[in-house]
Predict the 3D structure of the following.
Amino acid sequence: MSVRAAFEWIQQLRANEGLTSQILATEHPDLEYFVQLGAQAELIFTVDELKAAHKHEWQMRWLLHHI
């Protein structure tokens, strides 16, 4: 389990339109749903690690657009 795996999962979500469509078709997905999907891709992380990865990902995006 790691923040790194969760961060990799976020990157995969951004790159995979089919996966994004699957998530959008799900009624009210919660964070545990994202953890389960990550596990199916052999990326093991917790909800807390996903939250931390998301926070870092947004900070990096902000930096890229404000430098």
The mean pLDDT is 91. DSSP finds four helices and no strands in the chain. Residues 47-66 form the longest helix (20 residues). The radius of gyration is 12 Å.
